[in-house]
């Protein structure tokens, strides 16, 4: 696919959506000083050219559920088939093919302890020709939301960013329980994070007042996370990698917060496993990735080991299977 370069207004629109994926075109237009029609036209064009997607994702940590990053070893000739099979599962958030073709990496979100145990102890091990299973539970996210990647465009000025930033999340004092109406709303938002109130009414069978109130509750408690995805080549960044860091426990929080501010880092989280800090990194070239590892990661005190794996192809992002 030919890379679609983005102009300053495109970048501002993308960052506005990362701040608030459901911000109205009129609100964005007012802050950016353009017409509603211009914002709507740019949004439609970005959907066609760089596959812009806004997806509603449940933050499992707010629901007392765990998210996992699972690394599956396999022979090179079955990696693509395995990835495609996993992409069809509703409990997978993302699927990546990793350099060497002998690993498939995926984000998974079992909805209960029983589902988790069945998945990690039985189902994955029964898949033919898997040679290894390594599961890493997300303990704390430093950057990127619930397995969501940030592109960090920094296109908005501070005043624009402040005007577009939604109200702060007020976490509930105890885990939130969802009912059938909430689940139906989240299912619709997984398909389109910008679904209208009318569309959400149709999906839930509820009145506009109920839908609006439920939507506000899901957002203000942080249960609903709006993820923004688009083809990374549009930013000139063509090398994606996952870095698995082993960090001294006393330095884990400090280093996690430090790497979260790096422009190259789209996602950072503390995890279980031999490596206890995982980063999703995006660079313009392998030379830039080398510079990032040596000049930024290499200067942080407390990092003991670093394993870097290149992402060859992303097969699924949230509800989207990529072709």
Helices, strands, pairings?
Blueprint: H1 8-19, H2 25-32, H3 36-49, E1 53-58, E2 68-73, H4 79-87, E3 92-98, E4 103-108, H5 113-126, E5 132-143, H6 158-164, H7 180-191, H8 197-204, H9 208-220, E6 224-229, E7 239-247, H10 252-260, E8 265-271, E9 277-283, H11 286-295, E10 303-317, E11 320-321
Antiparallel strand pairs: 1-6, 2-4, 2-5, 3-4, 3-10, 5-8, 7-9, 7-10, 8-9, 10-11
Keywords: DNA-binding, Transcription, Transcription regulation
Pfam families: AsnC_trans_reg, HTH_AsnC-type
Protein name: Lrp/AsnC family transcriptional regulator
Could you describe the 3D structure shown?
A hairpin with a 2-residue loop joins strand 10 and strand 11. This protein has helices spanning 8-19, 25-32, 36-49, 79-87, 113-126, 158-164, 180-191, 197-204, 208-220, 252-260, 286-295, and strands at 53-58, 68-73, 92-98, 103-108, 132-143, 224-229, 239-247, 265-271, 277-283, 303-317, 320-321. The termini are close together. The model has no long low-confidence stretch (mean pLDDT 88). An eight-stranded antiparallel beta barrel has the order 2-4-3-10-7-9-8-5, surrounded by four helices. It has a two-stranded antiparallel sheet with strand order 1-6. The protein has a domain at 236-314: Lrp/AsnC effector binding domain/regulation of amino acid metabolism (RAM) domain (Alpha-Beta Plaits), CATH 3.30.70.920. Helix content is 36%, strand content 26%. The chain is globular. The chain contains eleven helices and eleven strands. Helix 2 packs across helix 3 (36-49). With 323 residues, the protein is of the alpha+beta class. The longest helix is centred in the N-terminal third of the chain and has 14 residues, at 36-49.
């Amino acid at each position: 696919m030919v890379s679609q370069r983005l102009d300053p207004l495109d970048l501002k629109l993308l960052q506005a959506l990362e701040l608030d994926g459901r911000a109205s075109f009129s609100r964005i237009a007012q802050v950016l000083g353009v017409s509603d029609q211009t914002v709507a036209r740019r949004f439609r064009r970005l959907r066609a050219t760089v596959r812009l997607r806004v997806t509603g994702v449940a933050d499992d940590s707010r629901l007392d559920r765990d998210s996992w990053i699972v690394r599956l070893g396999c022979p090179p000739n079955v990696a693509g088939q395995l990835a495609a099979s996993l992409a069809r599962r509703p409990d997978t958030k993302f699927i990546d093919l990793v350099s060497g073709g002998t690993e498939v990496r995926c984000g998974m979100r079992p909805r209960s302890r029983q589902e988790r145990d069945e998945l990690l102890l039985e189902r994955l091990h029964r898949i033919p020709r898997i040679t290894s299973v390594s599961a890493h539970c997300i303990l704390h996210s430093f950057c990127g939301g619930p397995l969501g990647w940030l592109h960090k465009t920094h296109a908005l000025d501070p005043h624009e960013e402040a005007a577009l930033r939604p109200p702060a999340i007020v976490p509930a004092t105890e885990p939130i329980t969802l009912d059938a109406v909430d689940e139906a709303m989240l299912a619709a938002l997984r398909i389109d994070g910008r679904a209208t109130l009318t569309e959400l009414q149709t999906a839930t069978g509820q009145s506009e007042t109920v839908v609006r109130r439920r939507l506000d509750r899901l957002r203000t408690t942080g249960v609903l996370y709006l993820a923004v995805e688009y083809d990374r080549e549009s930013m000139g960044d063509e090398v994606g990698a996952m870095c698995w860091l082993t960090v001294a426990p006393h330095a884990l929080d400090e280093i996690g917060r430090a790497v979260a501010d790096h422009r190259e880092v789209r996602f950072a989280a503390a995890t279980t496993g031999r490596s206890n800090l995982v980063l999703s990194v995006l660079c313009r070239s392998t030379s830039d990735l080398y510079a990032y590892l040596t000049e930024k990661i290499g200067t942080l005190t407390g990092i003991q080991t670093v394993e870097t794996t290149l992402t060859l192809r992303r097969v699924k992002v949230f509800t989207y299977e990529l072709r």
